[in-house]
Amino acid sequence: MPARHLVIGGGTAGLNAIRTIREEDGGASEITLVSAERPYSRMVLPYYLGETISESHVFTATPASLAAWKVKTLIGRKATTLDTGARALTLDDGSTVEYDDCLIATGSRAARAPVPGADGPGVHSFWTLDEARKVIADVKPGSRVVMVGAGFISFTILNAILARGAALTIVEVAPRILPRMVDETCAGIVADWLRKHGVTIRAGASLTKIEEQKGKRKLSFKSGAPIVADAVIMATGIRTNLEWLKGSGVEMAQDGQGGVIVDDHLRTTVPTVYAAGDVARGRNLVTGAAEVHAIEPTAQEHGRVAGANMAGRDVAYRGSLLMNIVEVCHLDVASFGQWDDTGAEVFTGVRPARSQYRKLLFRGGRLTGAMICGPSDDIWTTNDVGILKGLVQTGVDLSPWKRHLAADPFDVKPAFMATRTTAALLPQTVLGRPSHSPSLPQTVATR
Amino acid sequence: MKVLALHPDKCTGCLRCELACSYMQTGMYQPAKSVIRVSPFEGYTSYAPYTCTQCAEGWCMTACPVGAIQISAVGAKDVLDDKCVGCKLCTIACPYGTMFFDADRYKAYKCNLCDGAPACAEACPTQAITFEDVPQRDWIGDFAAQRSAYVLAREVA
Fold first, then answer.
1. What residues in B contact A383, CB-CB < 8 Å?
2. Which of A199, A428, A444, B94 has its CA 20 to 30 A from that of A75?
């Protein structure tokens, strides 16, 4: 009897696992996908909001493509109970699915600030496609929009809000913007840039309540004047979707909010159960620590590694690299690895007139974190964004270059080349083999 | 598969490759938009071209959330413009620094080997860039290490 794989969650991790299983087995196994939503890419929702792509562009799989991949789909169904002894999943309609191995890839959801009125009318999250549709309906030319939370998620939709012709105010409880993505100097550069582009920023503002007032939203704060808005978007953190897994025997950290415990094969404490993406407490490539990296690239790599192992390969995962990039009003900001490591040796460079910033963090001779900021017109004339990633990813010994980089943190390219980073990178692959095109493996279609 | 072989000791720094590349990739003669880049060494007395290796992992391709990067008929990782939304994930996933972003078109772009007839190799007057069926390797590392040793030694002194 062919192996029966069950994938729970149709996001980036789940779909990458499915594709990888098919790359490995050519269609020989049975795959069932349980997904609360039709598969789409959360990463591209901001472009749907900004109307540079249509809604159909966000979908990562169609009923036809999943059928061609020989995947049995249970879309619109949620997992409710996992019986790891009987190897059976119960769904919210009471039906059960039996499996030989399964992947937990249920991702996360947006959390709102715990204040009165946070769930009221005109207050939105921007995380799912359904939430995106509601924001689109509510944000029009001339709308006054308040975004609560100045983190990565709110910055990914900033351009789109402005493109819709809305006036934008960002409020943040921390004393500055992007508190978990960049340092204070970089945050200052970004804040100055945004103000020049007409965005109002109110940092250190502690929201106390949201009230309905004549069809508008009134936001009150611990100190300072209230703000009246047409629409409010809450980008105040995320929570893992793991409540349903409690009692299954699959071990989790911090009652699920710290993710599912996994080994270097993305296998949980129950050997027939894997976890990937926002719900997996995987390995940090730089530090080796087990932690949740709720970012798209980690979900993609986790999904592929878990899928390969489910298909019978023996693939150990080296770990994921924390990284983010966001562009606001043509200013690019990216960070890699342990950019906030207070124990690191730090070299920084600022070119204030051009809004450029660089930060290099070292542990010994190894670059363990980096930050880069600058106008798109400057950044993309260099190879530097990816080069910083390559230096952190390989951990090549930069000892001979540290003095040079301390004097000029902008001049990373000769260090990258002379330390033969390319030679270190060329043999590196996530699955121990060359990657395939993301299109359908022909072996499945023709079998 | 045929790859771009880079021979830095033959490079004169004329930048014809950058002009040819930018024209092929963007329709403009703008070296700043070229996806092959020539780096100076030793105070602009020697030079080395640098571009995408079409690596086995294809970090850009696997990172793309909408499958906009695919392997072309000549084996290059190629961006499909009508699929790219401009999220830039590929630019932070590529550890070689050879994924670029065109702010004018709002698309990511990279070396696609000009579909099998690379303009840079054609334009290079000294054959510092050739298109050959050879194993991919680090063409620049040894050259860069030798040519930067003097600079580093002087900085220490």
1. 37, 50, 96-98
2. A444
| CATH code of residue B86 | 3.30.70.20
- Give the pLDDT of residue A447: 47
B106 with B119, same domain?
Answer: no
Looking at chain A, the whole-number percentage of residues with pLDDT higher than 70 is 98
For residue B144, the chain A residues in CB contact (below 8 A) are 414, 417-418
- Pair (B38, B3) in one structural domain: yes
* pLDDT over threshold 80, residue A49: yes
For chain B, the domain total comes to: 2
Query: What pLDDT, on a 0 to 100 scale, did the predictor assign at position A345?
Result: 98
- With b for 16 or more beta-carbon neighbours within 10 A and e for fewer, the A69-106 pattern comes to bbbebbeebbbeebebeebebbbeeeeebebebbbbbb
pLDDT one-digit tens code per residue, A80-137: 999 999 999 999 999 999 999 999 999 999 999 999 999 999 999 999 999 999 999 9
Of B83, B92, B140, nearest to A389 by CB-CB distance is B92
Tell me whether residues B62 and A435 touch, CB distance under 8 A.
yes
User: Do B28 and B41 reside in the same domain of the chain?
Assistant: yes
User: Do B86 and B118 fall into the same domain?
Assistant: no
A71-77: average pLDDT: 97
- Mean predicted lDDT score pLDDT of chain A: 96
Q: Average pLDDT for residues A424-434, to the nearest whole number?
A: 98
Residues B144, A44: C-beta atoms closer than 8 Å: no
Q: How high is the pLDDT of residue A378?
A: 94
B91 and B42 part of one domain: no
Q: Do A386 and B138 touch (CB under 8 A)?
A: no
pLDDT (mean) for A322-328: 96
Whether residue B89 and residue A325 make contact (CB cut-off 8 A), yes or no, is: yes
- With CA atoms as reference, the chain B residue closest to A411 would be B39
Distance from CA of B45 to the nearest CA of A (A): 14
Residues 114-153 of B with CB under 8 A from A: 136-142, 144-145, 147-148, 151-152
The 10s digit of each residue's pLDDT in B79-98 is 999 999 999 999 999 999 99
In this predicted model, what pLDDT tens digit does every residue of B16-38 receive, in sequence order? 999 999 999 999 999 999 999 99
Interchain CB distance below 8 Å, B96 and A297: no
Least CB-CB distance to A434: which of B39, B56, B97? B56
User: Do B2 and B73 sit in the same domain of this protein?
Assistant: no
List CB contacts (< 8 A) between B73 and chain A: none
Same domain, B62 and B102: yes
Domains of chain A: 4-109+239-320 (3.50.50.60), 123-236 (3.50.50.60), 330-423 (3.30.390.30)
The percent of residues in chain A predicted with pLDDT above 90, rounded, is: 96
Residue B57: which domain range? 52-110
| Least confident interval from A162-171, A303-312, B41-50 | B41-50
Q: Min CA distance, A81 vs chain B (Å)?
A: 30
